[in-house]
């Protein structure tokens, strides 16, 4: 069933994983199977988990309070902007963010209150650019 003639084991595993749907593909890929049989078993295991979700365990009491409510809770308008993360996962600090337009700190050029400055001066009508 799992034999593919004229194909290396690694190629067969790769082809098998590529043919899976997204969730099983991801789960099997993360397990890094070394044989085609192991990849197949991981895919079957994942498929069982998707079709038959395990019931929640209520054996342990939760140490956290359930803060959900039926009514929506208000959110600060700048929460999303302030919680963004920059490159490398570090939080952006408004004090170190510098505006490209006015060189001020705490905002970026698209939020700058100063009038935007031109990068290049446009030539007057009838004149040419000088290099």
From TrEMBL:
Protein name: CCHC-type domain-containing protein
SUPFAM superfamilies recorded: Retrovirus zinc finger-like domains
Pfam families hit by this protein: zf-CCHC
Chain coiled-coil ranges: none
Stretches with biased composition (Basic residues): 84-93
UniProt GO MF annotations: nucleic acid binding; zinc ion binding
Region (Disordered): 50-93
Keywords of this entry: Metal-binding, Zinc, Zinc-finger
Record domain CCHC-type: where: 99-114
């Amino acid at each position: 069933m799992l034999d593919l003639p004229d194909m290396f084991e690694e190629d067969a595993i790769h082809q098998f994983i590529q043919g899976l749907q997204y969730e099983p593909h991801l789960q099997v890929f993360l397990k890094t199977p070394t044989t085609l049989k192991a990849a197949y078993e991981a895919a079957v295991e994942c498929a069982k988990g998707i079709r038959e979700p395990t019931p929640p365990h209520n054996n342990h009491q939760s140490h956290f309070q359930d803060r959900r409510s039926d009514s929506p809770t208000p959110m600060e308008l700048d929460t999303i902007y302030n919680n963004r993360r920059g490159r490398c996962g570090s939080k952006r600090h408004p004090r170190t963010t510098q505006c490209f337009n006015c060189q001020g700190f705490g905002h970026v050029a698209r939020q700058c209150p100063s009038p935007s400055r031109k990068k290049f001066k446009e030539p007057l009508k009838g004149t040419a650019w000088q290099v």
